[in-house]
Structure formats: structure tokens, C-alpha cells
From TrEMBL:
<protein>
    <submittedName>
        <fullName>ATP-binding cassette, subfamily B</fullName>
    </submittedName>
</protein>
<keyword id="KW-0547">Nucleotide-binding</keyword>
<feature type="transmembrane region" description="Helical">
    <location>
        <begin position="250"/>
        <end position="268"/>
    </location>
</feature>
<dbReference type="InterPro" id="IPR003439">
    <property type="entry name" value="ABC_transporter-like_ATP-bd"/>
</dbReference>
<dbReference type="GO" id="GO:0015421">
    <property type="term" value="F:ABC-type oligopeptide transporter activity"/>
</dbReference>
<feature type="transmembrane region" description="Helical">
    <location>
        <begin position="280"/>
        <end position="301"/>
    </location>
</feature>
<keyword id="KW-0813">Transport</keyword>
<keyword id="KW-0812">Transmembrane</keyword>
<keyword id="KW-1003">Cell membrane</keyword>
<dbReference type="InterPro" id="IPR003593">
    <property type="entry name" value="AAA+_ATPase"/>
</dbReference>
<dbReference type="InterPro" id="IPR036640">
    <property type="entry name" value="ABC1_TM_sf"/>
</dbReference>
<feature type="domain" description="ABC transmembrane type-1">
    <location>
        <begin position="19"/>
        <end position="303"/>
    </location>
</feature>
<dbReference type="GO" id="GO:0005524">
    <property type="term" value="F:ATP binding"/>
</dbReference>
<dbReference type="Pfam" id="PF00005">
    <property type="entry name" value="ABC_tran"/>
</dbReference>
<feature type="transmembrane region" description="Helical">
    <location>
        <begin position="162"/>
        <end position="179"/>
    </location>
</feature>
<keyword id="KW-0472">Membrane</keyword>
<dbReference type="InterPro" id="IPR011527">
    <property type="entry name" value="ABC1_TM_dom"/>
</dbReference>
């Protein structure tokens, strides 16, 4: 139960709905507990023919009045507990989503999307059920059992009550034995569901790869395996719950048999009246019902506890990248970048991704970075965005250590276009704007023109209101890249980072885009990462990375004058261009 302590503040803030709900539930139980006694009195009166007609009518109206009271009280306790539980579900899902957004990118390298989706759906729903149903049934069990027991002892027969409760201790033992097992089985169910969800999502997202490699049968087989694991986990849970529930029902039936035999004997011996016996049969249900319900309460609390633990594990995960205590109060960055003696590892047991990097980029200048795949180009861009921990005293912007620059300020002043372009399932206009602010269409169109995508957007039936498929699937690779460039341009940043974001367009289109961006980049610090010489040749400085180290640096002309990777890449691309021209 300690897993629920994190919800303390929620219960304090919503104490009044719970108080009203609890009072309504207690009053409801008192009313319900009186009904069997009332029915017993009616039975005795009718059996003995001692009840006048007006008394019978009075009882009838009393029962109707109690039904109305039960209706009203049930509404208030359901709104108090069930309604507030919906608020809990809303807040938990909002807080979980907000927390996921502040976690560092590295967290998502080690956690599957399907598992995180299961947390946001099934786990939160299980917690809501444990709070709504669990709390009400627990309170109902305690109040109804206590009230019924007092009425039975005082108005019917103490011995009959004790005899009827003989199975009670055995019920309690079963609850204790099964409680922990249910919690463990439910944890396995949630994990199996998360794995199945992850498999389904991967295949839906990668449907084109699956089809192009004709792997439908293979992927169906893999999904079927995950689906079967989910089925088996649920069946194991069903088997345990069935044994648990059946055991409680058997003990309840034994109690009923005992009551019929012993209670019937008491009626025959005239120790109690027939009305008392009728009332007691209802009360024994109220006495054993809560004990049977207690098993269900334990079941649902154990499920909720397992889910709450999984959610707490995420919520207690601290983001690796946060503002430092000695952060500088700066709102705007001009764009002077200095990198000195930077060596970076993704993990202690891995080789450095960058080694002894020294770069200086003055405001308004352009740096180009080229190199083989995996040489550290994108790592450099990620560190400038402070997406990973940056060693102290290695990267400075406007003379301020990047670790002392507020993350919000840093990222607001950088326009970044990654090589892995991501577009949302919304309109082209919303994808380019990507802001809660109402940005004029004219500004969006201007950014699209600079990115060389405006004419193609206008060629669509709905223009800028064209709704894209998931991850922008309705656009070509080049169109997606240019839409992402327009998004960065619209941001109007002082620092622009283009990370190999023109790889999906042809050389002619690339040249046009760079020509459009030249004026835009004039007074901004720009970093262009590319495999194409045509994209970097006009940069103020070009560096060549190899295995995380700078092996060449200079202007386009200087690098062509010396032997090395840059010159070899240039010759190879020139040869390709000549061949394409001849064709």
C-alpha cells in the first residue's frame, strides 16, 4: 500500500468529495442494514395475522421511501468516489505524459514505446479502479459488516450469528494467501500486454519495410508469440482468480447451509421467530458478502498496487539533463560558439564518440562538418542542443558554459533540423508552425518558400491544410525534410543546425534551397552537417571528422589543395555528377 502514498496530495485537494461520498456510503449502509429487520417484522406480522392493513401500507411506503433515499445516497457516493477517481486518472495521465517529455533522450534508448503506452493506459486504469472500486468496497465491507452484526446480535440471536460466521476466519486466511500471488500475476499480465503492444506498434510503423521484404508471415509469427504470451499470462491470472473466487463462494455456501440447519432448528424450537430467521438470512448475506467482497477488494488493490509501482518507477526517474543550480539568467544568445578540448562518451564502457574537439564559430559565420557515417557529426549537434551531459568547460556560447545556460533559452535560440525527420499527424501548416501561438499564414508560407516546398504544398488539394499521415507518411522523403527545414526557419533562431537534412533531395533542389537560405543565414551562426560537398563548399570553415577526431579543417579551396578524405569525397562526387550528366 505504500506505493499509493504519492497520491496523498491528490486526496488532500479532493477531500470534500471523498468526505461527502464516505458519509453517503455510511448512511446508505445503515439504511440497507435496516431493510432485513423491516422485512422480518412484516413476515411475523403477516404470519401471526396481527398486522392491521394501515400498518402494512405504512411499511410499504417506508420501503419506497428507503428506496428513494438509497437512490440519492448511491448517487452521491458514486460521484464522490467514482467521479473523483476519474479526476485522478486525468491528473495521473497528464503528469505521466509531462514527465515523459522532460526525460532525457537516452531514457528512450532503453525503454520500449509499447511498454510506456501500457503505463499510460492499462496501469493508470488499474490504479483508478483500485481507488474507485477498491476504496468503496473496503469501506462498504467494514460498515455493512459492523452494522449488520450489531443488529443481528441485539435483535435476533448471538449464537446464530457466531455459527454463521464460522467460515469467516478461513476466508481471511485465503485472502492473505492469494493476495501476493495475485499482485505478481497481474504484474506479469501488464508486462505481457506491453510487449504485445510494442510488437504491434513496431509493425504498423514499419509496414512498408515489412511488405518490401515480404516478411508478413514472419512478423505474424512473432506477434502471435507475443500474443500467446499475453494470453498465457492472462489465463494464469484467470485461473488464480477463479480458484480464489470459488473458494470464497464455497465457504459462503457452507455458512448458508449451517445457518439453514441451525437457524431452522431455532425456529422449530421457537427460540427465534420466522421473521427473525428471514431477516437473519438476509443479514448473513450482509455479513459474509463483505468477507467475500474483501477478497475482491484485495484482488483489485493488489492489481492497482502492481500498476502503481510501475508508474512510480517512471515518475521517480530523474531527467539527466536539467538546469544547473548556478544557471545564468540569459534570455537570448547571439551565437558565438567555442568548443575546447571536448571529449565525449555515451557511456563509461564505450569508446569516445568525440575526441579532443576544438572549434570556434563567430556570430554570423557558417561551419560545415563532413565525415564518414558514425564519425560523430550528429553527436556534436546533440551536444550543442545539450541533449546529453556535456563535460564542464568544453562548450561555450557567448562565453557562457553551456551547462550554465537555461535549457529553455538554449533550445529557443537554436533551430535544429535532424537527419531523422519527424512530422506529426496534423496539417502541414501545424507541422511547420509547431507552436501553440497563432502564427500568420504569410510567415508560414515565407518559411516554406525558403525551404523550397511552398509550390509543392500549393499543388495539394487542401494546400497548407493538407492532413499528413502518421510521421508524415503521405509526403516523400525530400518533402518531409524540406517541411522540417521550414519549421526551423519559421522559428527565426540565432543559431541554425542542419544535420544532413538534404540527403533525400536531388543536387539541383539542394542547391536551390541553399541559395534561398543563404540570405537567411547571413547574420546567423550556422552549422551544416552533410555528406555532399555542394552543401558545404561555401562555408566559412569546414572540418572533417574521422572516428570522433578532427583530421582536416579549412575552407573548401584549402582542403582541395591537400590530400585527404575531403578531396577524395570531392573527386568521387564530381565523378558521379559527370556520369549523371552524360546519361
Amino acid at each position: 500500500m505504500r506505493e499509493y502514498l504519492v497520491l496523498k496530495n491528490f486526496f488532500i485537494r479532493h477531500k470534500w468529495p471523498y468526505i461527502i461520498g464516505a458519509i453517503s456510503l455510511i448512511m446508505l449502509d445503515f439504511v440497507q442494514a435496516y431493510i432485513p429487520r423491516l422485512m422480518g417484522n412484516i413476515t411475523d406480522g403477516l404470519k401471526n395475522r396481527t398486522m392491521p392493513y394501515d400498518q402494512l401500507i405504512k411499511y410499504v411506503f417506508t420501503v419506497l421511501a428507503m428506496a428513494i433515499i438509497i437512490f440519492v445516497l448511491r448517487y452521491f457516493w458514486r460521484m464522490g468516489f467514482m467521479g473523483t477517481a476519474r479526476w485522478l486518472e486525468y491528473e495521473m495521465r497528464r503528469d505521466l505524459f509531462s514527465h515523459l517529455l522532460i526525460l532525457s533522450p537516452d531514457y528512450y534508448n532503453h525503454h520500449k514505446t509499447g511498454d510506456l503506452m501500457a503505463h499510460a493506459t492499462n496501469d493508470i486504469q488499474a490504479v483508478r479502479m483500485s481507488i474507485a472500486r477498491g476504496m468503496t468496497n473496503l469501506m462498504d465491507t467494514i460498515v455493512l459488516f459492523t452494522t449488520s452484526l450489531i443488529i443481528v446480535v441485539k435483535t435476533i440471536n448471538l449464537k446464530l450469528a457466531l455459527v454463521g460466521l464460522i467460515p469467516g476466519p478461513f476466508m481471511f486466511i485465503i485472502v492473505v494467501i492469494f493476495g501476493r500471488k495475485i499482485r505478481e500475476r497481474f504484474r506479469r499480465v501488464q508486462e505481457a500486454f506491453a510487449n504485445m503492444t510494442d510488437k504491434a506498434e513496431e509493425n504498423i510503423m514499419g509496414i512498408r519495410v515489412v511488405k518490401s521484404y515480404v516478411q508478413e508471415k514472419g512478423e505474424i509469427k512473432k506477434f502471435d508469440k507475443a500474443n500467446m504470451q499475453n494470453f498465457e499470462a492472462n489465463m494464469a491470472m484467470v485461473r488464480l482468480s477463479s480458484i480464489f473466487g470459488s473458494s470464497m463462494q464455497i465457504l459462503s455456501a457452507i455458512s448458508t447451509v449451517i445457518v439453514i440447519i441451525y437457524g431452522g432448528t431455532l425456529v422449530i424450537n421457537k427460540t427465534i421467530t420466522l421473521g427473525d430467521f428471514v431477516a437473519f438470512n438476509s443479514y448473513i448475506g450482509m455479513l459474509l458478502g463483505p468477507l467475500t467482497s474483501l477478497g475482491w477488494v484485495v484482488n483489485i488493490f493488489q492489481r492497482g498496487s502492481a500498476s502503481m509501482k510501475r508508474i512510480n518507477t517512471i515518475m521517480r526517474t530523474k531527467p539527466e539533463i536539467v538546469d544547473s543550480p548556478d544557471v545564468v539568467d540569459v534570455k537570448e544568445l547571439k551565437g558565438d560558439i567555442k568548443i575546447q578540448n571536448l571529449t565525449f562518451k555515451y557511456a563509461e564502457d564505450l569508446e569516445p564518440a568525440l575526441k579532443d574537439i576544438n572549434i570556434e564559430i563567430k556570430m554570423g559565420k557558417t561551419l560545415a562538418v563532413v565525415g564518414r557515417t558514425g564519425c560523430g557529426k550528429s553527436t556534436l549537434a546533440n551536444l550543442l542542443l545539450h541533449l546529453y551531459k556535456v563535460p564542464e568547460g568544453t562548450i561555450f556560447i557567448d562565453g557562457i558554459d553551456i551547462n550554465k545556460i537555461p535549457l529553455k533559452t538554449l533550445r529557443e535560440n537554436i533551430g535544429y533540423v535532424p537527419q531523422d525527420t519527424f512530422l506529426f499527424s496534423s496539417t502541414i501548416k501545424e507541422n511547420i508552425a509547431f507552436s501553440p501561438d497563432d502564427i500568420p499564414l504569410e510567415k508560414i508560407q515565407y518559411a516554406a518558400k525558403l525551404a523550397g516546398i511552398h509550390d509543392e504544398i500549393m499543388g495539394f488539394k487542401d494546400g497548407y491544410d493538407t492532413v499528413l499521415g502518421e510521421r508524415g507518411v503521405t509526403l516523400s522523403g525530400g518533402q518531409k525534410q524540406r517541411t522540417a527545414i521550414a519549421r526551423a526557419v519559421l522559428k527565426n533562431p540565432n543559431i541554425l543546425i542542419l544535420d544532413d537534412c538534404l540527403s533525400a533531395v536531388d543536387a539541383q533542389t539542394e542547391e536551390q534551397i541553399l541559395r534561398n537560405l543563404k540570405e537567411f543565414m547571413k547574420n546567423r551562426t550556422s552549422i551544416i552537417i552533410s555528406h555532399r560537398i555542394s552543401a558545404v563548399k561555401d562555408a566559412d570553415e569546414i572540418i572533417v571528422l574521422d572516428e570522433g577526431k578532427i583530421v582536416q579543417r579549412g575552407t573548401h579551396e584549402e582542403l582541395l589543395a591537400t590530400e585527404g578524405f575531403y578531396k577524395e569525397l570531392y573527386k568521387m562526387q564530381q565523378l558521379e555528377e559527370n556520369i549523371n550528366t552524360e546519361e
